[in-house]
Amino acid sequence: MCHRLIAFVCIVLLAALPARADVKDTIAKQAPSGLVLVLDKDGNELIAQNTDEPFVPASVTKVVTAWLALEVLGADYRFETRFYMDDKRVLYVRGGGDPFLVSEELALIAPALLAATGSEPFSAVVLDGSYYPTDLVIPGIENTGESYDALNSALAVNFNTINAVRDGKTVRSAEEQTPITPLAISQFLARAPNGRSRISLAQENPEISVRYAGELLAAFIEKAGGAVDGEISIGAVPAGLEPIHVHRQSRPLSEILKLMLIGSNNYIANQIFLEIGADLLGGPVSLDKSLRVSRDILARHGLANSIHLEEGSGISRGNHFTARGLAKLLDLFAPHARLMRSTKAGSRYKTGTFSGVRTLAGFAKTSSHGDVRFVISLNSGPGKLRFHILQAIEQGL
């Protein structure tokens, strides 16, 4: 009986060897210079090709940011925006860095404000974006006007972008839920081509995004039956005023992280990354605070030398990971894998794309090893190649 059992085990092991050899050969032929690491749930290396050098993760960085945010803030965390009013019915708005302060949220805020203050017109609106310093710089963000280069802000709406349609000197909103405002029109006329496009705000002046948030809020107040009679300006909330309304983001952090990972939104990622530092070290936010907190947490998990961050979205080429470090972090992130995109086979993944950089990492479903952790980084070939490699892992292991 014992000899039969040993023989059976040997047959099983020998049967597995050609499959693993086949997938290794397939990957080596498809991407001979590519980095590919696959580990099983026990940390055993199933595939390790060109894994010794650090690589630029691009948007795979967002997986690290998501894990850090869940560690520090928690899945149920909700960003807040605070509203105040003085005895002259001046409405003050203090931004809290909500990354998902979109038109649908403003549609919830406006009637709540009128319910708290009455329908008499507000005499003015003062916008307080001081939670974010005016000299905040995120490495990798450039002055391009592209939506992925949107600047981070304590008080910004619709990801600090405008989605509109330009026809000569006419501009209309490209979103049914978003009214067009004077500032949106002027920005679009100055910077957008004809046709439909999305542009980022605040490239030259960070106050632009705050003013646009105020204009859009005023438009929603009017839609809700209220009015703003006076000007919209930027200033500080007076000391001693108590909030008349605190808007808690309708989406918990876990839902925002899922949307961030699926949409790979740089603005959302860095809003969340900045909140990590401010939550533990106090406001206002700063990149340095978040980097310090991140380094401390990574060090506690033995990842200080293998996960190097310069910001939280992956837009900076200064971010550097090792394949084994990222695989270890994926182990930590495994309970939250459902937040990632999935393949038809059920694998979960996050992509990253730069000029000369194509990354893919996550959890691959295999028949012989269950869910395995994988890291792929390519510096040549088409973007689809990384998915061909993932499919080879799914089918060959």
Concise overview:
This protein is α+β, with helices and mostly antiparallel strands.
State the main characteristics.
elongated; six-stranded antiparallel β-sheet; alpha+beta; 10 helices; 37% helix
Record the SSE blueprint.
Layout: H1 2-30, E1 35-39, E2 45-49, H2 61-72, E3 80-85, E4 90-94, H3 103-117, E5 124-128, E6 161-167, E7 170-173, H4 182-191, E8 195-200, H5 207-223, E9 232-234, E10 245-248, H6 253-263, H7 266-281, H8 287-300, E11 307-308, E12 320-321, H9 323-333, E13 341-342, E14 348-354, E15 357-366, E16 370-378, H10 384-396
Parallel strand pairs: 4-5, 5-9
Antiparallel strand pairs: 1-2, 1-16, 3-4, 3-10, 6-7, 6-8, 11-12, 13-14, 14-15, 15-16
